[in-house]
Amino acid sequence: MKKTNWLAAACLSALLASCQCNEQKCCDESKYPNAVIESIMERRSIRKYQDRIVPRETLQLLAECGVNAPNAMNKQRWQVRIVDNAAYIDGITDVYKKHNPKAAADANFKNMFRNAPAVIFVASNGEGMTEIDCGLLGQNIMLAAQSMGLGTCCLGSATAFMNSNTDAAPYVQQLELPEGYKLLYAIAVGYPDEQPDAKPRDLTKIKFVD
Ligand SMILES: Cc1cc2nc3c(=O)[nH]c(=O)nc-3n(C[C@H](O)[C@H](O)[C@H](O)COP(=O)(O)O)c2cc1C
Predict the structure, then answer these.
(1) C-alpha distances out from residue 168 to 81, 102, 176, 180, Å
(2) Ligand 1 atom, smallest distance to 47 CA
């Protein structure tokens, strides 16, 4: 099977597995018309994770779902770095704690990536529509994760800290981004240990134009 076909099949089977159904339908058909819509509507930002590692094959699949996102002229102006190394996560968190002692004082604080065991960093090169490309990439990752029973949290503050603090520079260097690329945001990934309610959405922002 071609690699792209394999990836599509894996994504689809993950979606189907998440709702234990035979066709591309979801469990509660009265609520959602299919599994994709269920993943979109049920995804929430997760800030509490189980103490359980995410297999590398799963993280790789999530990243491959990410780079299959639409992107301007298929220029793929993004870089993706997956970190599941506890020494890296704890090390940069120690730097963060030094500069943000209040955040670290929270009894639930485990690390600066909302306590997740793995982080996917997304970097952009500032050219063209790279930020839109990177945003779409991230949403693919987060929805694929949701479909596989994983939780995620999009993080702008963690990378803002890493970009601006000189003590964090060695950790940014370890990501080996090519010349011109800068961290845009990160995605915390792990098995969720909470089920937050959806925050309200303002549907008046949607209007048909007749
Ligand atoms: C660009 C961006 C940056 C974000 N940065 C953070 C962050 O630094 N820390 C955090 O806890 N959540 C962060 N979030 C998550 C949002 O707070 C969250 O998506 C929003 O409150 C809606 O909640 P929901 O994702 O559960 O639907 C970010 C989301 C986006 C899209």
Answers:
(1) 16, 18, 14, 18
(2) 11
